[in-house]
UniProtKB/TrEMBL annotation, chains A, B, C, D, E, F:
SUPFAM superfamilies: AhpD-like. Residues 82-128 form the Carboxymuconolactone decarboxylase-like domain. NCBIfam families: ahpD_dom (TIGR00778), peroxid_rel (TIGR01926). One of its GO terms (molecular function) is peroxiredoxin activity. This is Hydroxylamine reductase. It comes from the Eukaryota. PANTHER family: CARBOXYMUCONOLACTONE DECARBOXYLASE-LIKE DOMAIN-CONTAINING PROTEIN, SI:CH211-175M2.5. InterPro entries: AhpD-like, AhpD_core, CMD-like, Uncharacterised_peroxidase-rel.
């Protein structure tokens, strides 16, 4: 199946971390028999039973791994063909295993881009992912207010300066690439930074269109230091 | 093959018109034995022989139908996996056969969006496509300077007003949808308008990154009224 | 003593809530024998022993009630006379017991204003206070990204629209007051909204000057629902 | 009395110059028996008889020294507690006797800040004070139009560049401080410049709220060179 | 002579008022034997003896009528042919005897336009002319800070709203003309308003190029109420 | 006759090139007996028979040389006196035979300025003139989208950087002149660049006022390489 194969490209490692953090009690399960929640999109959210199998399969894999299904999957399933293209592209950019960007770097770019574009869904969800990947529970909050005086390394600052130049549609010059090279990024990293910023230029605007609302889980995810004693028993506090 | 199947989704009717207009003499063929042109991207453009078969197949189909290969295919083939996601998404949005938007409408949205984002490649190439689809050889030039006083219908103006709101990341409200409904667009059309604007928010930024240059063919395409006498023989003059 | 009397005007109820929430283990005590932390201001932070008694008294009262001393007290004590004027003014505006604004309303105005002015300290600290007063743990995060699509009441939205007009130095007209009156605010409330926005126009700029850093406590304060069982014993989990 | 003591802090030398310049015939006396003028504020202006004694005392001292009572005193007396905080703070910043800023420097900062914020009251009144302190009758008019090509010293220009960075909420960096140091300002001067700009960020917004109108006296004050011969007889030319 | 005839079109009534107001002692005569002042332009200012006769004739007529020669004549005489075109155009727009705009209206448009364009020369000189024509000595100062809350009539406000729309290159619509018609301006008045704003869009930029400095006389001109007793004798005090 | 003499100053070489390119069949003649076209201006366009002789003479000379009469002549003839001043000034700036700017340079400045000001008429007509003078059929299209990444020489780029600084009313400094000098422009060239940008700051605003529409001929003029064989017979294809 074509769609199946498309989805084989997806390696949603993004969601693996979430799974280990989830608290069963706090998660609203979204099953095929439930009516879809109505307040997460301006557009109708399809019932699972009405969605193509490949999309349901992906949703269930994501939910199973991450503990809950991020609303972007529900909201964009209103257009299955676009859903496939969107997540295929997303997967290429955000789950790439090569290059100089860490997962935390990628999320930081998304946070800065999405704040610039005033996108509630993406800021809230990707600042959560940044907190988890970076293990820095306050840095994304700083970047949200003003990345220019956040507690960034020189490398992170150059990365966000470049991302913001792309975000604003500045004309990119050799000077921009040199600023990246001074902190150790090569031209392929520059492409990665730009492609992420560019993809979220799209994603942020789709969220504005649909008035996409973030899952409540995202707001607090990754804020608390993990309590090792608690981890032996039930996971709590997230 | 997965990729093959992905590409079956592509119905590049975009390029069919171009084919009927092409003048053999004016087209620079890009064959697998030629060195890739160096001045169309800041990043290396792969030789065809080094590209995956599905990408070469798509390129050859596009070139065969349209008479020349738009540079965006060459430039983005630097990243084959992203290339596939990009054109799969593009195809869904621009070659969709349903909904209230004509092909000319879609191109007009791209022109207005891309001018806002100062994207040379997309303005030049999609204003060419708009001229062909709309058979209005001067309207895109007007929109490029100032869509607010271009010779647009009320419907086109409302469409571009909505697209520009999305382009600027304005917070979208019911008022925006009502303005569309007053000229006959429904909410699915609103999604189409937004998704196109959003996709080119991404595409324009990739073009800035790569300093993507438009094919010379695009600049004059669709400017001249077709000469019926000439059409009996060879197509020329474009 | 004059200064004493000035401070009698201060009724730092702001800090009372904090006290009931504090977790002893999480609080870094700031005693007169400790060296002042160096990374909270670009300017020297005085030792308590070098500060005037009235300022030390106020600091100790605030710390005693709130569980920790917000860094703004330490940073601004570099200039004792300005410190007195600043907190005297702050107290008048934020701890006022009359008028139509709730404490949560006041904090929401500060959050929106301070985000507009890109002030890290004030966004982080006052979004904490908003979470506590409003018992809405996610609303300030929404306002930080984009107050226009946050889950605000019509009354809150009109309040922030007015505050933002003042924040941007728009020329204020009767139309602005009418928009407030439609949701139940009178002209004295309009003064309160404006005076808070205006005061933080000042405060935000002082924070930029000093590169004032928020206490770590603020980032997570008020995010977690209170655990009723725990409340019977010691307050924890904040 | 606390309030009395607060006001002892005030040394309104600002107004001393005004007194020496006043022409009895031109001054509209504001006595406790007169009705307050209605066109200087959008909010009610209290009768003196209804104001607290400490505020009346201050007003009378200012009027006695300066020859007329600036409208800001009347307008802000609508809120006596805020009035006290406002003028206590103002006094600390503008009448400070130490540091590298002259009185003319302070007023120039206020003029540039207030023009940026489009504040009629503060531009008109503080350009008057600048003319008096600086004895340069045209410089403030130049700064009002465009401080970048006004006839400023390098020191004044660096001072206003820094003030404008604070005024715009730019992120302040070491580079900003270095630019000040190159013309002889130290970090305490930087604080002074910023605090004045920050205070008028507040003051300008209160003037917008109240639609505060400048006293007519301010418009021409300090424009004419003093004619010593004339001073012996009637005061003229002001 | 052609040039002579061109200048016959000039009816420099602008300068007539100045003449009646001038104080001999305050005027720096600019005679053909003097070296030209060096600080009024970034470009060389020609000696009168090196200028064409028609330009010298115009300068002398203007100086004779107005009491001093505005620096714009000296600065632009660097390019005699452009000088002629500039003042011929200026004369058509500013000295026109027909239509709904008073001379004070025209000057008010120039002040608002020139402030928007940050043009020192034109703001200072035309606010002087506005004071004289309008006999309102403070209105232009108000417009300079913020025309939106200046003490304007509804007619003046609509006039400046239209001028500012033209000044910003907004797309002009029927709505703009209707707003003018509501206060009594017809379409020919709209042309006059626009043409003045457009001409000073040019003039302001030439002043920026040349760093044109206003004559000192302009700063205080028209600020003082005329003293009727003095008027019987010599005109002074302006 | 004065007017006649004014027009002797005009050497409309601008239009000479157009003449050699015109295709008789494509030109809509505008004769004195025809009704004026109604869709080229928001204001009435006079009949030739109602216009002063000198204006008709100029129009006929321009039409005779260029093959058609650019609409700006028709639209501005609504105000004959302003028409004379406008074209006299235009002629000085655009047809000047001395200095470092080529005709193509001048047109490029106009294109960049007019796009900045969103002026349809001037962008379309002067990009046509640029194509003819420069023999570069695509450069103006690039400048229209984004002059920063157009295929400009360093000299052209510095020229447009300076023009844009003037266009935006930036404060012009010695640094600006040095940037020009580095690519070979002297101060008189700087004046020329500025004066052209300034003149079109005016012209663009008049076009906005009148909703001036470009002649259809301009859109395609100069896009096609001249076919020498065809030139022997009829001129076609433009």
């Amino acid at each position: 199946m074509a769609n199946n194969l498309v989805w084989k490209l997806c390696r949603p490692t993004v969601f693996r971390h979430l799974a280990s953090l989830r608290s069963g009690a706090e998660i609203r399960h979204f099953s095929s028999s439930d009516p879809p929640p109505e307040n997460i999109s301006r557009y109708p959210v399809p019932y699972k039973k009405d969605l193509p199998h490949d999309i349901v399969d992906l949703m269930e894999e994501v939910e199973s791994k991450g503990g809950f299904l991020p609303n972007v999957f529900k909201v964009l399933s209103h257009r299955p063909a676009e859903f496939r293209a969107f997540f295929s592209y997303y997967n290429e950019l955000m789950n790439k295993e090569t290059g100089g960007l860490t997962k935390a770097d990628r999320e930081l770019i998304v946070v800065a881009t999405s704040l610039h574009n005033k996108c509630l869904y993406c800021v809230v969800s990707h600042s959560a992912l940044h907190r988890i990947y970076s293990k820095k529970p306050t840095l994304s909050d700083q970047v949200i207010v003003n990345y220019e005086n956040a507690e960034l390394s020189a490398r992170e600052r150059a990365m966000l300066d470049f991302a913001m130049a792309v975000c604003r549609c500045d004309t990119i010059t050799e000077q921009h690439f040199q600023s990246l090279e001074e902190v150790g990024f090569d031209r392929e990293d520059a492409w990665d930074i730009s492609a992420i910023t560019a993809f979220f230029a799209m994603s942020n605007r789709l969220a504005h269109l649909t008035d996409m609302r973030p899952n409540l889980e995202f707001y607090n995810m990754g804020r608390m230091p993990r309590d090792k004693n608690k981890d032996k028993g039930n996971v709590k506090g997230e």
